[in-house]
Amino acid sequence: MSAGETIRLTKRIHRFPIIKESQQGVLLLLPALIVIAVFTVYPLLDGLRMALTDRNLLRDSVDYIGLDNFKRMFLDNIFWLSLEHSLVLTTVVVVLQFVLGLVLAWAMNQNLPGMGVFKSIIMASWVIPVAATVTMFKFMAQPDIGFINIALKSIGFANLNRYWFGDLTTALPFIILLHLWRNVPFYGIAFLAAMQAIPKSYYEAAEIDGAGAWDRFRHITLPGIRNMIIVMVTIHVLWTFNNFDFVWLATGGGPVNATDVLPTYVYRQSWSQYDLGYAASMGTVMLVILMVYFIVYMRVFERQERA
Amino acid sequence: MMRMRSRTRTAVLAYLIVIISLIFFILPMLWIGYTSFRTQPSIFSGQVISPSSEYTLQNYETVLSVADFPQYFWNSIEIGAIVTLVSLFASIIGAYSLSRFDIKWKNALIIGIFSTQMFPQVLLIIPMYLVVFSLSLLDKVIGVVLGQLILVLPFQIWMLKGYFDNLPLDLDEAARIDGCNIPERLLHVILPVAAPGISVAAFYSFVVSWGDYLIVSVISQSQRTATVTLIMQRLSASLLIRWGEVAAVTILAIVPTILLFSFIQGRLVAGLTAGAIREE
User: Which residues, other chains included, contact A298 with Cβ-Cβ below 8 Å and sequence gap of 6+?
Assistant: First the structure.
């Protein structure tokens, strides 16, 4: 009998099964649950409570003021504007990312020379810090010295010269561009991974049956990557709606609120005005919107599942 | 013949998409890299190409010799490393537990953990600031780490659980019959097999921490905890921007993530989306 086996054997004898294994399983979850409880669940509950107060970092006294924050919100034009921008931005960004991601995945799925290298570098935009992405685009959008304006000038559009993030009409489209730049390759590679998991025989059978390219895409590819689509769209709706960095770092919500979204407005109310109560009440509205989305989405998805 | 022509058309279209993608996704990074080697007058000339005398390493020298920047860079690395280690520990054992054990209210727990992704961070950060403040952890590395953990943990647990679900149960079962207890099973049986997925999880948490702006901007109060993202924002928000130096800082902020990415890229998506693709 080897030493290792002896040790194992003695262990087996001495280990008393005081804790059942499934209970040990719960213990393994504890560290994560504690962090989530202290830094997510408690802050969430405290935030919901704070939405009913006039808590301000500059004052010591805190009073419950019922729904006054929500009444104030109702009359706050910037709140409505930010809400509108948030909804438009999230919808446009997720739809475009989905479509462009599919296009990219389709291209990568063609077995062509050089595609391997392309696949290996294309997701680089997803891993670099958002602050770096924003800096790069702010530089490219500079008047006179930025790449975009230099390129426009060279093809005869010198009259379009402007700071693209500082212009009332182009600032929001440029925020959309930032989102696309970061995430479309991620969509593309994720859809590609799902496409490659579809058995080749499905396509061969369809071709024998005389199905065209569109039919094959519609009836084999799309259903085949359905799960991936659901996951990507769900998490990106949440991430985009809650995203703070892109707008804050690129424009701070300006020029004159042209790019303000709910996260930046909430952030300004909390850390420039120190109006925590009002900020928390708007954060609560954001949460309610996402919960409604989540529930409706799940319902629709479940109904499709059954059908 | 028809088939041949449609094949060529497909190839042309696919390459067109590839070329446009390369211009759109890669060019901005090359452009900022190129800018980091140009002098201020050459950048402001509005020309794409300058005389060779106007290329320089001065921007990097300035950035690296300014006493603050190396400090910020180090802070970013330190915070990123601790977040990665702590979140890996918590998410590996947590995901293993959700994947292998029969726990009460398991589905509710999984949905609960996943739905924390839904909570607006700008809302959480307000009370979280007060929690960190009351623990006297403001402007401490550990305060930033605790804040960033919540950015990472839920997604990491979800993705590792998916990964573990795809590993055969027989592995654990055989080890259990051999008399291995849970830590032994995890360490000697699961970890070696799950290494590819775990390396993706580690990469994910480092990249999220390295790129975080929101949490740092609220919890950091001085250069003791300020990170590269914070300083990038300050530099490019000042009035007269020295773009050469900003470009150098940006490149220095990008390089670590790109380096790690080059090691991991082959398995990145398979790891990230393990929860979405089930092996039958």
Answer: none
Nearest to B46 among A145, A193, A287 (CB): A145
Q: Is residue B79 less than 8 Å (CB to CB) from chain A?
A: no
Residues of A in contact with B120 (CB under 8 A): 242, 262-263, 266, 283, 286-287, 290
Contacts of B102 in chain A (CB under 8 A): 22, 25
Q: Is A64 on the interface with B (CB under 8 A)?
A: no
Residues of B in contact with A31 (CB under 8 A): 89-90, 93-94
Which tens digit of pLDDT belongs to each residue from B132-182?
Answer: 999 999 999 999 999 999 999 998 998 899 889 988 888 888 888 888 888
Q: What span, in angstroms and rounded, lies between the C-alpha atoms of B33 and B38?
A: 9
- Of the listed ranges A40-49, A183-192, A296-305, B208-217, the least confidently predicted one is A296-305
> Which residue on chain B is closest to A290 by alpha carbon?
B118
Any CB–CB contact under 8 A between A12 and chain B? yes
What's the DSSP call for residue A139?
H
A81-102 confidence digits (pLDDT tens): 999 999 999 999 999 999 999 9
What's the one-letter identity of residue B122? Answer: V
- CA distances to A85, A259, A278, B40, B271 from A76, in Å: 15, 16, 11, 44, 44
Rounded CA-CA distance B91/B190 in Å is: 14
Torsion of CA B259, B58, B29, A170, to 10 degrees: 140
In chain B, the percentage of residues whose pLDDT exceeds 90 is 56
The pair of three-digit structure tokens given for residue A105, joined into one six-digit string: 């995945």
In this structure, how many other beta carbons lie within 10 angstroms of the beta carbon of residue A77? 8
Query: What count of other Cβ atoms lies within 10 Å of the Cβ of residue B2?
Result: 6
Structural domains for chain A? 75-306 (1.10.3720.10)
**How far apart are the CA of A79 and the nearest CA of chain B, in angstroms?**
15
Instruction: State pLDDT tens for residues A245-283.
Output: 999 999 999 899 999 999 999 999 999 999 999 999 999
Interface contact B103-A150, CB threshold 8 A: no
pTM for the whole structure: 0.90
Mean of pLDDT values over A94-118? 94
Domains of chain B: 2-54 (no CATH), 58-272 (1.10.3720.10)
Q: Are residues B210 and A244, on separate chains, in Cβ contact within 8 Å?
A: no
> For B229, which of A129, A181, A266 is closest by C-beta distance?
A129
Task: Return the structure tokens found at A99.
Answer: 């479509």
Question: Kind and range of the H or E element at B125?
Answer: helix B121-134
Rounded to a whole number of angstroms, the distance between the first and last alpha carbons of chain A is 61
What pLDDT does B3 receive?
Answer: 61
For residue B64, the Cα-to-chain-centroid distance in whole angstroms is: 24
